[in-house]
Amino acid sequence: MATIVSRSALADHLSLIAIPLEGPSLQRTPGLLWPEGQVRTPMTAAFAAIVRRVAKSMAEN
Length: 61
Known about the structure:
With 61 residues, the protein is mainly alpha-helical. It has a domain at 34-61. The chain is built from 1 helix and no strands. This is LysR substrate binding domain-containing protein. It comes from Variovorax beijingensis.
């Protein structure tokens, strides 16, 4: 079995090895997840708003 993870994910798994990838750069699309139908608390909604604002700012720069 193979998967793509960041090198830092291997820090606690000494039996795994990293094979560097060559070629095009990899791009990740982050997301915020919560269970469908679950009402978000005001704190969760505020956190999501902050993450969106920071991500938008980073994308514009």
